[in-house]
Amino acid sequence: MARENPTWGRRRVKSELAHLGYNVAELTVAKYMRRIPRRPSSTWRAFLTAHARELVAVDFFLVPTLTFRLLFVFILLRHGRRELIHVNATDHPTAAWAARQIVEAFPDETAPTYLLRDRDAIYGEAFARCVNAMEIRQVITAPRAPWQNPFAERVIGSIRRECLDHFIVLSETHYRRLLRAYVAYYNAVRPHQALDNTCPRPREVEPPALGRVVAIPQVDGLHHRYTRVA
After folding, report:
1. 17 φ/ψ angles, rounded to the nearest 5 degrees
2. How would DSSP label each residue in 154-208?
3. Closest CA to 158 of 64, 40, 34
């Protein structure tokens, strides 16, 4: 698993083995991988813990293409299950475009109570007007304090480390395909420590009795899903 998935750490491998019915100690995995995992970043614990189930976070990050075109990527993350519920990209972001992403992400009165964001000028009047009309309360981080939006920052880091750093983005079409593949992997395959090593969309444990283990490539073969077949 470590050879086939070069971005995985010992906790990721341990979680994958647990889904296959093997309860292996983390230190045992580390012994054979010989890797030192990074420490998790600090969090804004008091607020995030109290409102995790009713809070979503938004953020932007930049992706350059092979032709030096810059794409602005918008992500929307649900805190309670760490689920990526909406991702889109554009080369010309506006407040109206960002507002439209919120509307598309929450149809039919499914809007959350709180929306956590930074002070980027992109969240202008059109964005604020849309969010207020949907009765969403904006929680704005302090200036120059990205740690106050830690889950969005962390998922952006995961997208870079576990996907974009390993590909040359050829075009917006290529990027969208990569992003769709990674979001599907992130939500349904990749375990999260904060979720007791389950996925945002939980996976069931597959004991050895269900059959042999097969590897299913994910994200153009950069990652794999391990499952059992009879």
Report:
1. -65, -35
2. HHHHHHHHHTGGGS---SHHHHHHHHHHHHHHHHHT--BGGGTTB-SSPPPP--G
3. 40
pTM: 0.78
Burial, 53: exposed, middle or buried (Cβ in 10 Å; 0-12, 13-18, 19+)?
exposed
Among 51-60, 154-163, 177-186, 210-219, which is the least confidently predicted range?
A: 51-60
Within 10-113, strands assigned E span 55-64, 70-78, 83-90
Q: What are phi and psi of 151, to 5 degrees?
A: -70, -40
Report pLDDT digits (tens) over 86-108.
Answer: 999 999 999 999 999 999 999 88
The full set of domains in the chain, from first to last, is: 10-41+193-229 (no CATH), 45-162 (3.30.420.10)
Count the neighbouring beta carbons within 10 Å of the beta carbon of residue 104.
Answer: 11
Neighbours of 94 (CB within 10 A): 13
